[in-house]
Amino acid sequence: MSAVDHAPHEHVVLTSEGDQELKPRSALGPAELLREVGSVLRMSEAEAAELTVEEADPSEDQTMIINMGPQHPSTHGVLRLMLELQGERVLRCKPIVGYLHTGMEKQGEELTYLQGGTNVTRMDYASPLANELVFSMAVEKLLGIDGDIPERAVWMRMLLSEINRMASHLLFLATNGLDLGAVSMILYGWREREEVLRFLQKVTGLRMNHNFIRPGGLAADMPAGWRDDVLRLLDLITPRLEEYDILLTGQPIWRERLQGVGVITPQEALALGVTGPILRSTGFAWDLRRDQPYLHYDEMEFDVVVGSYGDCFDRYAIRLNEVRESMRIVRQILDRMPAGDYRIQDKKITPPPRARIDESMEALIHHFKIFTEGFRVPEGEVYVAVESPRGEIGCYIVSDGTARPYRMHIRAPSFVNLQALPHMMRGGLIADGVAIISSVDPILGEVDR
Amino acid sequence: MGIKEMMDEGMAGLDHNIITGRLEDLVKWARARSSWPATFGLACCAIEMMGAGAAHYDLARFGMEVFRASPRQADIMIVAGRVSQKMAPVLRQVYDQMAEPKWVISMGVCASSGGMFNNYAIVQGVDQVVPVDVYTPGCPPSPETLIHSITTLHTLIQNGEIMRRRGETGRGADVLVEDVPASTSVPVSLTR
Amino acid sequence: MPDDPTDAQRAEGDTTAPAPGVAEVHGCPTSESRGQLVVHPSPEEYLALLRALLDDGYHVCVDLCAVDYLTSESARRLPDGVGAERFEVVVNLLDMAARRRIRVRVQVPEADAVLPSTFELWPGTEAMEREVFDMFGISFEGHPDLTRILMPEDWVGHPLRKDYAVGRIPVQFSPGHADPVAGSPGQLP
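ok -> structure tokens follow
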């Protein structure tokens, strides 16, 4: 056993992040103080006047700055929060991120476009297919084949996206319950999620980080018997969601802990760039599937679930009902899934079927070139966005005509949504802070990339 | 045969007679059966670790369903996910705060070797920061693989192998388990 | 669908400058990239253009990122009159009422890598600008808290620049452990 024993103050020095941390109020300029207090600029004068900092807050020697995380059971990953507290009340909050920074955007410049999916899928690891979808759509747009993807591939992509949304929201329900003390929710949520993951494993080969949606289509066709599996999944989950309603939605303690907590207004959400269930909880109905449709969402009948109060309860209820809406979409897809190719038959982009490699020299060469060198993508830049379970996920790719992206940037919804956290936490208790972090549902993999 | 050996290696350092030998076995049996993991879920592997703790794969049957947030109360640190440069000192701090005896499972390829992220941002193997006892391959390892590595660790704890090896080299046990393919069987119908 | 489209065939007509029908937006030249309208202000015009776009209805700043064009000049096509510089800051805006997007690309010289901050216009750009500062070293005047966000505070260098190697860097925190992990770093194929 290594005999290195650090004195406590040395640990603090080693793990401190200097200027990134929350500084005492006396050390801050006015703009930074306002920002940490959570005021969102572009408010009207009347609104700004309500948010006075100097008179309402106690003096600094009556408050305490504490650290929460990055290793903490309730921070949903390696999120570090520094809070200035007066007793239990949160005055200021500053999230410090970067503890999961993986250099994925730099890594993306070293990987070919076919390998890019493996990189991108590990960003938002609760809904990996959404990352793969947006990356593939961006590459297809650069290639100019975004109108030529076969119908079956498009419908399959939609099916898998919605099933992924169900799995991600079930994870949210599980962790939200756990964070608020309804510990059995994590077992129930995971029980349903296991069934979804089992289906995804049957289709894609992996439970997570599937690398299944690729530029040009998908990696493989749906397996035999998939319709029965999907129907069984839907029949299983529908009554379970009603169990969650009985367990949580109407329950007084649940409501007390969530209603009126972490309120955000639509103007603030828009100013901060917040999208997804958080924006919809404020009453602003914006869902890319309906408002800037991609795939065949414009032909699907589904409702965009919207809240009224902008609090944590609305966000919980929205995600619960989005599972129902996703199931509705999945039923429509089941009826309408066409036969056909699961990927575009462009020999330059799509690897040939494995059997063909033994028969045709040309197929062998194409396979070799695609998997070693990679296919080249014409020059240009493109930004594509889809609706992930957390909000708008976008992919900005700059191509220089070679087989690797010159710049690959993912606009991660959780990265932007986290900016709403200080705003929502101000004035609440620490216990409310846990509820708020949970309702924002950040995935730190995509925050830090 | 002395106080020094007992302080370094616990009861294993004593020359055992029939009574203390049995007691030592009992202690090792208890340690193996109720080792509590410290929460160190970082990335995608954390989701699979939670899945392993959930009802279907059920770590509770190995005595490990209580993930202790406080390192003082934890025995095993399962490093689940990629460790970034910013996180490495935090990892070491949490490891140092754990009380002996403690063990480390490095879950997944990112923790074991940096995984697919061979770049400036990721520590290439968590064994650069803490001594690792069991390496678990997979990206992410399925819950069955994680359980395989946990039971491997438990076997080593119960044999006393681990405490002896730790004393010699100062490193962890460095055991690599095989990947267990996730099962695809149809689930038992949960009708009521 | 052609049997075997070549790259040249695909690349034709995909980016045009100026954008068809829209020669300029608020006095700044435009181009069109895969169907998306792109505006190219100079660093002096940048903030005024964004303010004008905000007044036009682009109430949400979806994304603010940067690109380092050090090693490739062929990757981008700029309209006439826009001088290419090493860095480019790319801002994607969204007008939800009209369901339209617009992209703003401003050239930032390496010698004077400073832009005005858009924090006053869209507070949500605060974290995005910090990330650009951290990854590229471009500063934003008027930003309330311009510190690193993803890398540790004492990190040297800006990782996403093209002259910053992707390669393996020895772990910064090593408590006396004997050997680093053996094996060559290599670049992925």
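The two ends of chain C are 31 Å apart (CA to CA).
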